[in-house]
Amino acid sequence: MSIDVRGLRCFLAVVSAGSISRAAENMHLAQPALSLQIKHIEQELGVALFMRSHKGVVPTAAGLRFESHARDILKRLDVACEDVRDLVTDPSGRVAIGLPQSMAKILTVPLVREAIRRWPKVRLQVVELSTGYIPDHLLSGRIDIGLTFRADAGSGLLFEHVVDEDLVLLAPPGQFADARKPGAGLTKTVRLKDLHRFPMILPAGEHGLRTLIDGYLRAHQVELPVLAEVNAIPQLINLAAAGVGCTILSYASVCAELHDGLLSAARITHPGMSRPVYLCRSATMPPSIAVSAVLDLLMETVRALIADGQWPARVSRAGC
């Protein structure tokens, strides 16, 4: 069906004027052009909308019914246009972001602080989730944006590779450097082939991070002495801090602990270990103005943290 907004406005002008000629004059249109608009709508609907006489035109029963719909449609369109104009400059509404624990630790404070400053009417929710749950939360509409460590093609979601974040070797305070100075632990480096010298506590084999670590080790024929397997990231951090064993996690997972001197860390080199981070959202639901604004702020925050050296990572080309 090809009835457009102009046609609806022409139809309502004729209803109001009771005459095609007067309606054409009011709309500053040639009468034949307006008559064609009315004829086109009648052909599309397959009904006569007006009864014509030498005195003018009056709506038929179908015309009266169509008038009600046309006024409602145009009113909704006007409200929608005004709403969008307001939202572009002053967005409002709920925006929920699903973040893995490590991402939440490094992104939440700067992201929430800046969102509140820029958009007081936006109700930002940061939901900390295991990455495996983020796709389901997106598909169900419980969150609007998510960050994950794996792209799941064909899931009804869009995935964009935005960052590659460094993995670091973690040990008790002072083992690698003076961990009481923010970032000081990252002045030390350990070659990947030398990781076998460190007794390890790592996630179990089915854990996504363990799968990634094992891939690097197999590629370079390195075997690690694994003392125990623990999947919970907070417990891995506690075990490394207590000197029970070293572990390998993302820098974002432990930025606060390094800053507070609870751990020390070393960069893994030759090659370095990193894991991809993907931005994901619904492939079918267009983002609201507020969601689009927060999504842009999220990427702006990521780039700023990396540029300032607060997050050892690299923005991918897709995330530039």
Major β-sheet annotation: 9 strands, mixed
Average pLDDT for all residues: 89
Straight-line N-to-C gap: 41 Å
Beta-strand portion reads 15-25%
Rg (C-alpha, Å): 30 Å
- CATH C-level class of the largest domain is Alpha Beta
**Order of helical and strand elements:** HHHEEHEHEHEEEEHEHEHEEHE
CATH topology of the largest domain: D-Maltodextrin-Binding Protein, domain 2
By helix and strand content, what is the structural category? alpha/beta
Instruction: Report the principal-axis shape.
Output: elongated
Number of strands: 13
Domain count: the total is: 2
State the helix count: 10
Helix percent reads: 40-55%
Which consecutive residue ranges, at least 5 long each, have pLDDT under 50? none
Name of the CATH architecture of the largest domain: 3-Layer(aba) Sandwich
InterPro entries: LysR_HTH_N, LysR_subst-bd, WH-like_DNA-bd_sf, WH_DNA-bd_sf
Domain HTH lysR-type: 3-60
Protein name: LysR substrate-binding domain-containing protein
Family: Belongs to the LysR transcriptional regulatory family.
Sum this structure up briefly:
Helices cover 43% and strands 23% of the residues. By secondary structure, it is of the alpha/beta class. The protein folds into two domains: 85 residues, Winged helix-like DNA-binding domain superfamily/Winged helix DNA-binding domain (Arc Repressor Mutant, subunit A, Orthogonal Bundle), CATH 1.10.10.10; 228 residues, 3-Layer(aba) Sandwich (D-Maltodextrin-Binding Protein, domain 2).
Question: Please, could you describe this protein's structure?
Answer:
Helix content is 43%, strand content 23%. The chain is an alpha/beta fold and 320 residues long. The chain has two domains: 85 residues, Arc Repressor Mutant, subunit A (Orthogonal Bundle), CATH 1.10.10.10; 228 residues, D-Maltodextrin-Binding Protein, domain 2. Helix 2 crosses helix 3. The longest helix is centred in the N-terminal third of the chain and has 29 residues. It is elongated. The two termini are 41 Å apart. The model has no long low-confidence stretch (mean pLDDT 89). This is LysR substrate-binding domain-containing protein. It holds the Pfam family HTH_1. Keywords: Activator, DNA-binding, Transcription, Transcription regulation. Belongs to the LysR transcriptional regulatory family.
